[in-house]
C-alpha cells in the first residue's frame, strides 16, 4: 500500500498540467489528516496517510510518498458560501481580496464559492454582497499565476545599476567642462595684463 508521508509546500507545487494524471482523493477543506487513515484513491488503489500529527489538509494540497509519487486532494461536496454580484468590477475586487486573505475559494460559473465561516459571511453581508449557503466543492481554480522569485528582484536591481552609471557619467563630464572653462578665464586675464604693459611702453 502506498504510504503518503509529506505535503508539498505551495511554492514547490508543479503546474496543474503535470498533476492532472496524478490520482486524487476528496476531502473537506481544512480537514485533519489524523482521522482519515487508509484512503481509496481515484484510480481505485489504496493509500495510507502517514503525515505528521495534526496536519491540516486543504483542497488542492499535493501529497507524496517515499518514491516521490504524487497524490492530489480535491474538494468533497460540502456546505459553502455562494457569493453573487452583478457588478463585474466589485466581483473582481472581492476575488482579489479573498485571494490575498488565505480563505479557500472556488468558482462556479459567475458565482464565487467560499469557506462557510461565520465571520467571513458577516463581512460579506456588510460589504453589500449577496451570500447564500449551498452545497458545492471548494476545488481551486485551474489557473495559477507564476510565483514571484528572487530573479524578479534581481532584474529590478539591474535597472537601478543602469541609472547609477548614467549619473556617474554626467558628473564626470560636468567636472571636466568646468575645469576647462576656468582655464579659459585665466588666459583672458593674462591677455589683459599684456595690454597694460604695451600701453606703458608707448608712453
Describe, in plain words, how this protein is organized in 3D.
By secondary structure, the protein is of the alpha+beta class. Among the domains are: 2-75, HSP40/DNAj peptide-binding domain (Sandwich); 77-137, 2-Layer Sandwich (Alpha-Beta Plaits). It is 39% helix and 26% strand. The protein is built from 4 helices and 12 strands, in the order βαββββββββαββαβα. The chain has helices at 16-19, 88-101, 118-126, 150-202; strands spanning 2-7, 24-27, 31-32, 38-40, 46-49, 56-57, 62-65, 70-75, 78-84, 105-108, 111-114, 130-136. The strands form 3 sheets. Strands 2-8-7-1-5-4 form a 6-stranded mixed sheet, with no helix packed on it. The radius of gyration is 35 Å and the shape is globular. 14% of the residues are buried.
Keywords:
four-stranded antiparallel β-sheet, disordered C terminus, 26% strand, globular, six-stranded mixed β-sheet, Alpha-Beta Plaits, alpha+beta, HSP40/DNAj peptide-binding domain, 203 residues, 12 strands
TL;DR of this structure?
With 203 residues, the chain is α+β, with helices and mostly antiparallel strands. The chain is 39% helix and 26% strand.
Compute the CA-based radius of gyration.
35 Å
State the end-to-end CA separation: 122 Å
Mean pLDDT over the residues: 77
**Sequence stretches where pLDDT stays below 50 over 5 or more residues:** 164-168, 170-203
**Which oligomeric state applies?**
single chain
Give the CATH H-level superfamily of the domain at 2-75.
Urease metallochaperone UreE, N-terminal domain
Number of strands: 12
**Beta fraction of the residues?**
25-35%
Shape: globular
Class per helix and strand makeup: alpha+beta
- Helix proportion of residues, in percent? 25-40%
Number of continuous helical runs: 4
What is the CATH architecture descriptor of the domain at 2-75?
A: Sandwich
Amino acid at each position: 500500500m502506498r504510504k503518503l508521508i509529506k505535503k508539498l509546500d505551495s511554492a514547490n507545487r508543479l503546474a496543474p498540467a503535470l498533476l492532472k494524471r496524478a490520482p486524487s482523493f476528496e476531502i473537506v477543506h481544512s480537514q485533519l489528516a489524523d482521522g482519515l487513515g487508509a484512503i481509496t484513491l481515484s484510480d481505485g488503489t489504496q493509500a495510507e496517510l502517514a503525515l505528521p500529527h495534526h496536519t491540516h489538509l486543504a483542497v488542492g494540497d499535493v501529497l507524496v510518498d517515499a518514491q516521490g509519487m504524487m497524490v492530489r486532494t480535491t474538494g468533497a461536496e460540502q456546505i459553502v458560501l455562494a457569493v453573487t454580484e452583478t457588478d463585474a468590477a466589485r466581483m473582481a475586487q472581492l476575488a482579489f481580496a479573498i485571494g490575498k486573505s488565505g480563505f479557500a475559494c472556488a468558482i462556479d460559473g459567475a458565482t464565487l464559492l467560499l469557506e462557510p465561516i461565520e465571520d467571513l459571511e458577516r463581512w460579506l453581508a456588510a460589504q453589500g454582497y449577496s451570500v447564500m449557503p449551498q452545497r458545492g466543492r471548494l476545488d481551486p481554480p485551474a489557473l495559477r499565476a507564476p510565483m514571484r522569485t528572487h530573479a524578479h528582484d534581481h532584474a529590478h536591481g539591474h535597472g537601478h545599476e543602469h541609472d547609477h552609471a548614467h549619473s556617474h557619467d554626467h558628473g564626470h563630464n560636468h567636472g571636466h567642462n568646468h575645469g576647462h572653462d576656468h582655464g579659459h578665464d585665466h588666459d583672458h586675464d593674462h591677455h589683459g595684463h599684456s595690454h597694460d604693459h604695451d600701453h606703458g611702453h608707448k608712453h
